Amino acid sequence: MRIVFCGTPEFAVPTLRELLANPEFAVEAVLTQPDRPRGRGQRVLASPVKEAAAEAGVRIYQPESVKSDAAHDFFAEIRPDAAVIIAYGQIIPRRLLEIPRLGWMNLHASLLPKYRGAAPIAWAIINGERQSGLTTMRLDPGLDTGPILMQRKIEIGSDDTAPELARRMAELGAPLVVESLVKLERGEIVPIPQDSTQATYAPILTKEHGRIDWSLTAHEIYNRIRGLAPWPGAFTTFRGRLCHVWGRPAGPAAGASSPHHAGTLIASDSAIEVVCGEGTRLHLEAVQVEGRKRVTAREFVNGARLGSGERFGL
């Protein structure tokens, strides 16, 4: 089966490598986003997918816009049997969707129609889901609205972070894509339309999503710490300066009254805790004040010479 693969981040790499290693498939070309400035130094770097394709000696194409006439001519020249797309980063126009004989297959990191959109892994964790999954679907012009081909469920551990869950999903997604392509070619899959009335959305993350609302329970804040890693992270302010925080739920149990305002830091010999909503507390583990290195909660408190009643969020 002749394949064109479209993808950009690390999440797409395991599937690309699985297709390259499988003799049933010939990856004719790889489309990925143009090299972009990344990191603190803003060095222009290739995407993880480009790096993997280059290692394999596969033809690489990086159009600024996949809607251009040049991109259409590129696809029309190859005329693949199928196109596989995973987190590519551009919307595929209808005229390209019509070129492959078997259509376009997308791997999405949720059990569609739940969590359509750009950040399904993050939002599943933020919302406290205990289960998610992977969906292969036939691409259409909508936002993750195409008919479902196959699905696999995956448990979300109580301490899973977004990067950890993404790595597991990426590895499990690779064989699912291969199985879906093989069964689609054999006519063993009947695509199932999504029930749009059950759809939920996972919008792209913005920096402001990371700002902690200390009136939430400690468990809800912990979900945000896990789901928003590594960017934008969970952050607050202390003495007017932005700081990222890490921690996990501590006592007392929800429903207990607290004489302190939400966000109040309470230091004892055994722990540093932050008062949260509904009488819960977050056991503070580490803090990184803007412009400084990450330190333990104890180092932060000792360095700050914490005063009575001082709070995060001010």
Question: Can you lay out the helices and strands and say which pair or pack?
Answer:
Blueprint: E1 2-7, H1 13-21, E2 26-31, E3 36-38, E4 43-45, H2 48-56, E5 60-61, H3 69-78, E6 82-86, H4 94-97, E7 104-108, H5 120-126, E8 131-138, E9 148-155, H6 162-186, H7 218-227, E10 235-238, E11 241-250, E12 265-267, E13 272-275, E14 281-289, E15 295-296, H8 297-304
Parallel strand pairs: 1-2, 1-6, 2-5, 6-7
Antiparallel strand pairs: 3-4, 7-8, 8-9, 10-11, 11-14, 12-13, 13-14, 14-15
Q: Termini separation (Å)?
A: 59 Å
Helix content: 25-40%
Radius of gyration: 23 Å
Number of helices: 8
What is the CATH domain class of the largest domain? Alpha Beta
The appropriate CATH architecture of the largest domain is 3-Layer(aba) Sandwich
Structural class based on helices, strands and sheet pairing: alpha/beta
Low-confidence stretches: none
Secondary-structure element order, as H and E? EHEEEHEHEHEHEEHHEEEEEEH
| Strand segment tally | 15
Strand content: 15-25%
Number of domains: 2
How would you briefly describe this protein structure?
The protein is α/β, with parallel strands linked by helices and 314 residues long.
Your description of this structure?
The structure is a single chain. It contains 8 helices and 15 strands. It has helices at residues 13-21, 48-56, 69-78, 94-97, 120-126, 162-186, 218-227, 297-304; strands spanning 2-7, 26-31, 36-38, 43-45, 60-61, 82-86, 104-108, 131-138, 148-155, 235-238, 241-250, 265-267, 272-275, 281-289, 295-296. The chain has a 7-stranded mixed β-sheet with strand order 5-2-1-6-7-8-9. It has 314 residues and is an alpha/beta fold. The chain has 2 domains: 2-198, 3-Layer(aba) Sandwich (Rossmann fold), CATH 3.40.50; 207-304, Formyl transferase, C-terminal domain (Methionyl-tRNA Fmet Formyltransferase, Chain A, domain 2).
